[in-house]
Amino acid sequence: MRLITNALLLAVVGISALGAEDLLLEKAKSYGLEPIPNDIDTLMSIINDKNDPISYPKIELGKKLYFDPRLSKSGLISCNTCHNLALGGADGVSAAIGHKWTINPHHLNSPTVFNSVFNQAQFWDGRSPHLADQAQGPIQADAEMAAPQKLVVDRVTSIPQYVEDFKKAYGANVKITFEKIASVIGVFERTLITPSPYDDFLNGNENALNSKEKAGLDLFMEKGCTACHNGIALGGTMQPFQVASQYKFASLGDFSGDENGMVKTPTLRNIAETAPYFHNGGIWELEEAIQEMGSIQLGIDISDKEAKSIAVFLGSLTGKKSQIIYPVLPPSTKNTPKPSAD
Amino acid sequence: MRLITNALLLAVVGISALGAEDLLLEKAKSYGLEPIPNDIDTLMSIINDKNDPISYPKIELGKKLYFDPRLSKSGLISCNTCHNLALGGADGVSAAIGHKWTINPHHLNSPTVFNSVFNQAQFWDGRSPHLADQAQGPIQADAEMAAPQKLVVDRVTSIPQYVEDFKKAYGANVKITFEKIASVIGVFERTLITPSPYDDFLNGNENALNSKEKAGLDLFMEKGCTACHNGIALGGTMQPFQVASQYKFASLGDFSGDENGMVKTPTLRNIAETAPYFHNGGIWELEEAIQEMGSIQLGIDISDKEAKSIAVFLGSLTGKKSQIIYPVLPPSTKNTPKPSAD
Nearest-CA neighbor of A310 among A324, A300, A322, A321? Predict the structure, then answer.
């Protein structure tokens, strides 16, 4: 329907003025694909959170906390351990491993933190509405960072530089709570966006994608992938899983989605860097993952050649990572609660 | 003896031209304390290794590998996990924890990587002569990164960007061996030096230390600490341990030094940032550690006030960390051996 409307629109504006690239671009938009906006005000209106607006002091503080392993009970696991900014924002292992080497009890794979701000829901079961809330989960989870809220607050408030940083970020009367610690980590995470050649293309630079990438994009749409992988995130919404047939690694772990069996569609941004794939990290090769999605979600066969073409397109979603200065963290004091490996 | 020679020298150059700071500086030198040289050629002559000379492509490659958890069997532990550049180059836990959450079998504490180039020997038992050799140990150790040499080489050579980086660093005919991987990590580590106010003082800036720090430095020398804590590293040589009495946490772990009972004296640089202290991380407070050293090594009582004064001096050894851009690591390929948590 959208295609037809679009075709009509094209007829009105004069088809002869439009090249093949313009047609592909218009088609992509009509299929619900959206770029990361070039315009900073538009971008900010999407990534900002009025409950905790982005500011430089918050980004810097959030970055420190993101990299600080002292937010875990053991003192060894940071947010960055499983969402490693050096490795596409993920950990590259099948299921997350946390405190005491505990493998995620549902055998869940760590999603990338990059562009997670564009997700409509967080966690595989979508139980969290935004990053400020999401960040509270793994810090406390027994199988991840295993730190009770009080321990986290006591660690942070025992370190004078952190107290100073919170004052800079939130004013002299700030009360440092567990929620505030998670929220400022969320502020940092909201800045972790990675514009890619694909965005350049959707923003109007027709040479940003080569002909193979364009062919892959067209096939991606024609096969129906955009039914779930749409929007800025090319994913990030809750969708039914195993629609047409059963996932070949369905038995790996016990995850079955939310109470309605819905699962968060992962973003496809930086997908070439974030193997293994699926909620349980069952598949390691992108082309195999594409074919599996065709089979279980769309009920179609995707040939090797077609999967390769789509994978070439997905490569154009590998985005530019902002330069991150590795933080020098403020040292612990004698009042800082000691780490515990137990 | 050195003091006397020095006093004679001072008499010759004219004592009246020298203030109290000059005297303290001369005294420090006569006690074997040396700054990180200001002069880059002198510095390079100390930190460079003719077997693998420092170059920018090697530093960049070594940095990537230092941060890359894929050098471990699990894919989760990097050099930086235990020698965290955000935390004074160490991990802040009592005994290192590695693969499968294994606590170091001898309950050994991870030493800081910063300024480790100035150590005469590496590891607590001094069994390694230099960093290129040292870096081979933890990668393979079952309780640390647990990766066999072949796995490490297979991982690195499966990633085209790494192969390219090695060619840039060592020439087109480079053979990527386990030893070469460790050596280029060593090149990066040799650049991790942290000049401090103390160095400024020893290099001639008499205002670089305040009066309390100067008093602490004088006491540090008068108490005899420089017997072991001397040279650029203020440590880094093999020394007998428990000379005068038994260490209060001697029963923690089973480490007893090398075959002669000798133990590597830790550097005191950045010591205020690298609690807990001693080979087994038994003591968490710096002043307590100072008093314990007086008791077990020098056979003297160091009062609370004296320990505090020495700790103030040791604070001046907290050095400036070079800005580290967190690397974006090249992605794995389908040929990259998979991580294993077992």
Answer: A300
The tens digit of pLDDT for each residue in A215-274 reads: 999 999 999 999 999 999 999 999 999 999 999 999 999 999 999 999 999 999 999 999
Residue A135 contacts residue A189 (beta carbons within 8 Å):
yes
pLDDT band at A16 (very low <50, low <70, confident <90, very high): very low
B291-326 pLDDT tens trace? 999 999 999 999 999 999 999 999 999 999 999 999
Q: Give the closest-approach CA distance of B248 to chain A in angstroms.
A: 19
> How many beta-carbon pairs under 8 angstroms link A with B?
95
Task: Give the closest-approach CA distance of B147 to chain A in angstroms.
Answer: 16
| Interface contact A336, partner B, CB < 8 A | no
Helix runs in A31-159, H state only: 40-47, 56-67, 79-82, 131-134, 136-140, 149-157
Nearest-CA distance from B83 to chain A in Å? 11
The three-class DSSP label of residue B334 is: coil
pTM of the model: 0.94
AA letter at A76: L
Beta bridge partners of A239: A263
CATH numbers and ranges of domains, chain B: 2-40+195-315 (1.10.760.10), 53-190 (1.10.760.10)
Q: ipTM value of the model?
A: 0.93
What are the C-alpha distances in Å from A15 to residues A1, A19, A26, A28, A103? 19, 8, 12, 17, 56
Q: What is the mean pLDDT of chain A?
A: 94
- For chain B, say whether A92 makes contact (Cβ under 8 Å): yes
Determine contact: B223 vs chain A, CB below 8 A. no
| CB proximity B330 to A under 8 Å | no
